[in-house]
Structure formats: structure tokens, C-alpha cells
Specification:
Blueprint (H helix, E strand, L loop, with lengths): L7 H14 L2 E7 L5 E11 L2 E7 L3 H8 L2 E8 L12 E11 L3 H14 L1 H4 L15 E15 L7 E7 L4 E7 H8 L1
């Protein structure tokens, strides 16, 4: 008997779990000439919203402040590689990056980062975090706008396109990727 497609709540739960357990995503920013740049970044997931940490005098922080349109990709690849391909899942997001300037939100980001990744608590990385205009560290909130969720646990090549609402906190639309792509051909 074929497995049924997951509900929106199940997709949300699976994405939230991926964003809380995977430590690194690839972030694409846009330079002043409209060309993309990709960077590997640590992420902290808070529901469907992602936070990324960088420093004031980096290429990516300059680009994020000049153009908030970003894309990121994060995936779970099992240690067994191809033999465990039924466990592979990934998320590709187009979103909006916002510099976080609220002290309470910055404190929350540091807390969830240390909660998700115990190694962060063993460093001084978050010991002296200040507001963006007072220090070198910067946090960006990335709210998803659209995305692609792939989950081979459902079935091989299961893919859905997603729209997000409420500041990236909810999934407002789920469409079968293959049906949409075939419809465009």
C-alpha cells in the first residue's frame, strides 16, 4: 500500500526538525552587480525562521544589508551515503534577510544557538554580543517566502513547492513539484 503524502502540519514539523538539527546551510546573497555569492553558514532554526550569525566587516553582511533577498539550502545526508538515500531530505528557500537589532531577539538567538549546538556554549562566541551598532557580531533573521521541500522518507523523489506567510512562520500553500514543473513545460 503506498504511503500517503504528509499533511501541511507534518511537512512543517519535518522542516522544523531539519532546521534544528542541521548545523550548516549554504546561503546565497546578491552582490552590487546582481551576481550571487554562496557561503556556508551556521544556522539556528526557530520554527520555519532561520537565524544566521556573521560579522560587521564581511562581504556577506554588506550584501545582506544592501539587498535582503537571499536563498539558502540545507540538507540531511545520512552518513551511509547512497545506501541510506531513503533518509535524505532537503530544503531550498527564497527569503528575506533582516538585521536583528532587538536586544531580546538577539538574546533568544544566542540561546537557541547554544541549545541546538552544545559546542557553542563551550566557546566565548556569544559571551559579549551587542547591538549591531555597538559591536562586530551581527545576526540576520531569514524569513522564508517560497521554498522546495524534498523528503525521500515519504518516497523517492518526493518534492513539494511551498509558499510561506505570517513573516515566514506558516506554510500557506503546498504544491506537487512534479505537477507544477510538468505544467510549465
Amino acid at each position: 500500500m503506498p504511503k500517503s503524502d504528509p499533511s501541511v502540519a507534518e511537512i512543517r514539523e519535518a522542516i522544523t526538525e531539519l532546521l534544528r538539527t542541521e548545523e550548516v546551510a549554504t546561503l546565497a546573497t546578491i552582490d552590487s552587480e546582481g551576481r550571487p555569492w554562496a557561503s556556508a553558514m551556521h544556522i539556528a532554526g526557530d520554527g520555519l525562521v532561520v537565524y544566521m550569525h556573521t560579522f560587521r566587516h564581511t562581504r556577506k553582511s554588506t550584501q545582506l544589508r544592501q539587498n535582503p533577498n537571499v536563498s539558502y539550502s540545507v540538507c540531511h545526508l545520512p552518513p551511509e551515503g547512497y545506501a541510506a538515500r531513503q533518509e535524505t531530505r532537503s530544503l531550498q528557500i527564497q527569503g528575506i534577510a533582516t538585521l536583528v537589532a532587538d536586544p531580546a531577539e538577539i538574546e533568544r538567538i544566542a540561546e537557541i544557538s547554544m541549545e541546538q549546538f552544545p559546542w557553542a556554549g563551550e566557546t566565548a562566541l556569544y559571551d559579549h554580543v551587542k547591538l549591531p551598532d555597538q559591536g562586530q557580531q551581527l545576526f540576520f533573521r531569514i524569513e522564508p517566502v517560497q521554498g522546495l521541500w524534498a523528503d525521500n522518507r515519504v518516497r523517492m523523489l518526493y518534492r513539494v513547492l511551498l509558499d510561506f506567510g505570517d513573516g515566514g512562520k506558516t506554510i500557506t500553500k503546498v504544491e506537487d513539484y512534479h505537477a507544477v514543473v510538468r505544467g510549465r513545460a
